[in-house]
């Protein structure tokens, strides 16, 4: 699971882990034997011939049929493990690429299964195959009604994104469009906690990409995050404790973007208003929530992360929010938090980033979101 999973919303994740990892009953003997793959070393190095591709196709079909026809947890688990064992049978990019092609061709019906156990295991298979051909299946999973499949889709894309980018513009544009669509409609904090991981790209570019093109890829991903940011801020301002905790991952993604993109005023002018908008939204709720409530407990670390990010980008070394959050009296603390927001607004406007339209700090009983967030 991603480091950005959100505390307090573990039910789905725990259930998945219990189902996928717990000991199960001994599997029933299948009525037919799995395909005995026998791909010669020469083909693994130079490329699979038609006969070898047919072997792989038969092996994949066998396990997918087993998974679809399974009548028990043990049979489902055995089919998934058998399929992944065959995928990992040869440490060959050419073999695994062909294997991924066959999985992508045949797994669509399993993702539509009424049995959620079969859906989940089929989605897990797709997410663990690190090859570009599963991109089409991941795109289907990104908007699936089952949040477990959506979560696995983000995990799967995280594993293959560099390979997708290496394929060129068409593959990359397909990825950007699918991620933007999915992110714009995602309402599960647990899934969004995984999605934030996609916006961290701190590795070197694929050999087929220039540093400039790779920088553009980072900017495209940042634009997707910026597109959903107003909705995240609204959820935080509404007092959604799970989303408040989850959005710490979004702030971390913005810090990473600042680190990996060109650290110029244009980058700062994109990131700083987003951090400020989240600060504004969190501060709005501080004035109307009990400090020890689930939302109140989640707001303090989020506001601290926001201030740390503002200092990181601006190099301001100021801590009005930290000081405000240390005040014990709820009313005095709320007023101090609002003053801290205003202090940061003045710092950002005076910083030369071209930020002249930042909203003023919310009132003690705000009722609207800041314009432009």
Description:
The protein is mainly α and 373 residues long. It has 2 domains: 1-186, no CATH class; 200-206 and 223-373, no CATH class. It is built from 17 helices and no strands. The longest helix is centred in the middle third of the chain and has 27 residues, at 211-237. The protein starts with 10 loop residues before the first helix and ends in a 24-residue tail after the last helix.
Offer a concise description of the structure:
67% of the residues lie in helices and 0% in strands. It has helices at residues 11-21, 41-46, 50-69, 73-87, 93-106, 108-111, 116-128, 135-142, 147-166, 169-185, 189-195, 211-237, 241-260, 265-286, 294-314, 320-325, 330-349.
What's the helix and strand layout?
Elements: H1 11-21, H2 41-46, H3 50-69, H4 73-87, H5 93-106, H6 108-111, H7 116-128, H8 135-142, H9 147-166, H10 169-185, H11 189-195, H12 211-237, H13 241-260, H14 265-286, H15 294-314, H16 320-325, H17 330-349
The rounded Rg comes to 24 Å
Largest sheet: none
Return the domain count. 2
Cα separation of the termini: 30 Å
Uncertain spans: 7-11, 17-31, 366-373
Number of helices: 17
Secondary structure tally: strands: 0
| Principal-axis shape | elongated
Beta fraction: under 5%
Helix content: 55-70%
